[in-house]
Amino acid sequence: MRRRAPTIREVAQAAGVSISTVSNVLYNKVGYYSPETAQRVWEAVRKLGYRPNHTARSLARQRTYTIGVVVDYFLGGVSSNPYFGTVFDGILQAATDADYHVKIFRVPEGKSEPAVERIEDGSVEGVVTVALTVDNPLLEHLENSYVPTVWAGSIPPNAKIPCVDIDDISATYQAVKWLIELGHRRIAIITGITRQWSARRREQGYLMALWEAGIKPHPAWRYEGNFHVDSGKAGAAYLMGVHPRPTAIVCGNDRIAIGALYVLAEMGIKVPDEVSIIGFDNTEDAAYTEPPLTTINQPMFDIGLKAGEMLLQQIEQGTRFRNNLLLPADLVLRESVAPPPRED
Prior knowledge:
434 Repressor (Amino-terminal Domain); Rossmann fold
């Protein structure tokens, strides 16, 4: 016979307190009970094996204790996307720590209405958007919505709501500046999808470093990718056919860099002896490529964690505020970069 779940009334009786006191202790309403009372309640909870009823809690307070995570169609398979997967893990951690649930909303290309309806129907108390494209119509809607929102990654310029990201411009600038200090002058780029602010900013950082060093960017040393491995393969094959051939390639992310490494190996071009490669993100695979990939470390988990915490702070306080948080990004030196080959 299945054992009946204990009730909050039984916990109150075991602890010798009222039901409302048990509720206050369980939901951490500080100031309504003494430490000794809290100890008695938690001892009764453990002894009886009581578990709070979240559905009843939500109905009683007219709360859902659920946040939404909005992702763009361009990310492809979200479960296999290393950027989204790691950012989402951070958001999930923040939600779990606060005893919230998480729903994922995916925005089809050019169709924001279904997502708007699901965000506004009261099923979530706020949303985190992850790397939406620059032309996504949901951006303007959320900036003017009453629903608390936080951007996570690839944040729009002059955003009217809280954002968490890294400084893509500075991170890429520092990486290219280091290549220049090693002696590279023919530095190419395979960008990410330019419908994302992050791809545009990384290219801006790349150009800033070249201009500062007095290096005129060669028009042929640019290939527009899309953050996927195939664009890294195509971009590297194209760049190896350019004259003069670049001695270094800056890639929009690690997946592009992995594709570039694969093609260069197929072509018999040695990395880093003939061509240096830099990625972006420092995904788990970056340390296991051949050679191991030099890349820019992006704290993706922390981006999600801080975005989730920022959103929950707004929800619990019942206020909206502007607060842009840029986390540090640093260059991880491995074996895919070396000084340029000597000219004969």
